[in-house]
């Protein structure tokens, strides 16, 4: 709902740091951005360094974390690489691709990770300064915890950044995990004196129950730390927003537990380097769909549709697919009339061959694909980053999404494309492939289920009636996302001392 407050001019920055990963930093920044926007304050999000395999494409063809894309939406802003100048995308447990100002520039292994400050910090500070000049307020999100003492020397994501730009900090912790007072006080106690002074207050997240039962603890915390508790935020049920990195397990369980009608069963094998699995979150909201993520040793049988997802390491994940026997299960699924869809890396896996002559992903130079589409892919160092819209070939349904991939696909199968697209530069082209028997489709477009028309077409294709649409109408994911942003802003505004928080911003 619209805010009725009339605020005094506010100008400056505020950083939200957490006692742990997943303490609630991203959601807090999203909510604060929308609250400030509703009050007529010019505001932008910022995360100095993010590590995630879920990303979004900016209008100028850069790449940022999906959390910052959501926060930008909360601010009513188009996506900018300045919102997340450093993005790390793990290739393996020991190596990460380094993306600076939206473009991949390097790779670091675990032994060289300390070089990130030398490599990237000047870019972080420059991006932050540009935002400070454009907007009245910049709300900054930390990464992980500032108390990770092994990372302090080269920190650019938490107190290392806050100290460099003289930014005040609020510290958030998740009470649902237990030990919230130890998390908050322990984190503060580990920090240097100047960093302790920089923390201006606490937020407690995911509280369930009566606030009176917590009051003694809140009083103790304020007396012990000499810092205020700025708010106690309730546990928000049924939250339907993009996951920053990990699969949204709560929504997954909720989706699986629905049993009130006959539904289309969709199974997605979880690959070690699965990327942009936010593709599937609209399906978790669809009352006509059962979506199951299948992990190692799992069973793909019983599915109407199997989706091969995106991957940061396509050849390694393809090898994993075979190790788990998922390839044999997919072939059996097709023999019984099932459907298969590949998205991005999953599309590449469905082809005849994947070659990597430049060793973009590692030492494997060539892999045999699953052979279900007549295409072959050559991986390239240059990444394709595009926002696209268009129509599905032969059906005319609208499609809208984005591309993030290293690779060029060729072959006769492309003569039966999935869709016709136009990118943000005005270039038009066809994308993807559909097998001759119509059972297998592949596309490079992420976000295909976000748009109701595309979602309904795919579900109709699975159910055998693509022209008449899916058994249940798909909801507009963008409209749902907007409603959820408004909902969390209302909740945060109700439970945070906003006057005190606005006084902290400088």
Folded structure, characterized:
With 506 residues, this protein is of the alpha/beta class. It folds into two domains: 12-235, P-loop containing nucleotide triphosphate hydrolases (Rossmann fold); 251-480, Class I glutamine amidotransferase (GATase) domain (Rossmann fold). Helices cover 30% and strands 26% of the residues. It contains 15 helices and 28 strands. The strands form seven sheets. The protein has a six-stranded parallel β-sheet, sandwiched between helices. Strands 15-13-16-18-28-27 form a six-stranded mixed β-sheet. Strands 3-6-7-8 form a four-stranded mixed β-sheet. Strand 22 and strand 23 form a beta hairpin. The longest helix has 19 residues, at 116-134. The protein is globular. The active site is at 344 (nucleophile), 446. Residues 14-240 form the CobQ/CobB/MinD/ParA nucleotide binding domain. Catalyzes amidations at positions B, D, E, and G on adenosylcobyrinic A,C-diamide. NH(2) groups are provided by glutamine, and one molecule of ATP is hydrogenolyzed for each amidation. It holds the Pfam family GATase_3. Keywords: Cobalamin biosynthesis, Glutamine amidotransferase.
How do you describe this structure in short?
With 506 residues, this protein is an alpha/beta fold. α7 (215-225) links the parallel β11 (199-207) and β12 (229-234).
Helices and strands in order:
Layout: E1 12-18, H1 25-38, E2 43-46, E3 49-51, E4 55-57, E5 63-65, H2 66-75, E6 86-90, E7 95-100, E8 103-109, H3 116-134, E9 137-141, H4 159-165, E10 169-174, H5 180-190, H6 193-198, E11 199-207, H7 215-225, E12 229-234, H8 249-257, E13 264-269, E14 274-275, H9 281-284, E15 289-294, E16 305-308, E17 310-311, H10 314-323, H11 326-335, E18 339-343, H12 345-349, E19 353-355, E20 366-368, E21 376-378, E22 384-392, E23 398-405, E24 408-410, E25 419-423, E26 428-431, E27 433-434, E28 440-443, H13 452-463, H14 477-495, H15 498-504
Parallel strand pairs: 1-9, 1-10, 2-9, 3-6, 10-11, 11-12, 13-15, 13-16, 16-18, 18-28, 19-21
Antiparallel strand pairs: 4-5, 6-7, 7-8, 14-17, 19-20, 21-24, 22-23, 22-25, 25-26, 27-28
């Amino acid at each position: 709902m619209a805010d009725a407050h009339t605020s005094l001019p506010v100008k400056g920055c505020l950083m939200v740091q957490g006692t742990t990963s997943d303490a609630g930093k991203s959601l807090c920044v999203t909510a604060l951005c929308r609250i400030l926007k509703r009050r007529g304050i010019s505001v932008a999000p910022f995360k100095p360094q993010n590590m995630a395999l879920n990303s979004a494409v900016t209008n100028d063809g850069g790449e940022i974390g999906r959390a910052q894309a959501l926060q930008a939406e909360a601010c009513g802003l188009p996506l900018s690489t300045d919102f997340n100048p450093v993005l790390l995308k793990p290739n393996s447990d020991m190596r990460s691709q380094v993306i600076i100002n939206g473009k991949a520039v390097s790779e670091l292994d675990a032994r060289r990770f300390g070089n990130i400050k030398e490599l990237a910090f000047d870019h972080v500070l420059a991006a932050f300064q540009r935002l400070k000049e454009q907007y009245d307020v910049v709300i900054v999100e930390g990464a992980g915890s500032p108390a990770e003492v092994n990372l302090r020397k080269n920190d650019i994501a938490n107190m290392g950044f806050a100290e460099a730009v003289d930014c005040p900090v609020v510290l958030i912790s998740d009470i649902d995990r237990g030990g919230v007072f130890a998390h908050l006080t322990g984190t503060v106690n580990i920090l240097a004196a100047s960093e302790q002074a920089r923390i201006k207050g606490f937020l407690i997240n995911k509280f369930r129950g009566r606030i009176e039962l917590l009051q003694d603890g809140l009083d103790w915390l304020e007396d012990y730390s000499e810092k205020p508790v700025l708010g106690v935020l309730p546990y928000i049920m049924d939250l339907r927003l993009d996951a920053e990195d990990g699969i949204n397990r709560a929504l997954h369980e909720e989706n699986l537990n629905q049993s009130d009608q006959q539904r289309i069963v969709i199974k997605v094998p979880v690959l070690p380097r699965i990327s942009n699995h936010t593709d599937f979150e609209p399906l978790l909201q669809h009352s006509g769909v059962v979506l199951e993520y299948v992990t190692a040793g799992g069973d793909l049988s019983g599915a109407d549709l199997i989706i091969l997802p995106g991957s940061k390491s396509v050849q390694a994940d393809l090898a994993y697919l075979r190790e788990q026997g998922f390839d044999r299960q997919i072939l059996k699924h097709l023999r019984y009339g099932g459907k298969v869809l590949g998205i991005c890396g999953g599309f590449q896996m469905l082809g005849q061959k994947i070659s990597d002559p430049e060793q973009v992903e590692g030492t494997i130079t060539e892999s045999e694909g699953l052979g279900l589409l007549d295409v072959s892919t050559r991986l390239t160092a240059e990444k394709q980053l595009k926002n696209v819209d268009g129509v599905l070939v032969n059906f005319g349904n609208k499609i809208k999404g984005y591309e993030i991939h290293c690779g060029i696909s060729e072959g006769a199968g492309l003569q039966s494309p999935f869709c016709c697209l136009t990118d943000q530069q005005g270039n038009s082209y066809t994308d993807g492939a559909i097998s001759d028997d119509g059972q297998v489709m592949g596309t490079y477009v992420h976000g295909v289920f976000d748009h109701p028309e595309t979602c309904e077409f795919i579900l109709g294709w699975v159910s055998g009636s693509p022209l008449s649409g899916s058994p249940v109408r798909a909801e507009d994911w963008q409209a749902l996302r907007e409603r959820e942003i408004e909902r969390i802003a209302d909740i945060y505004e109700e439970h945070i001392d906003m006057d005190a928080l606005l006084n902290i911003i400088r």
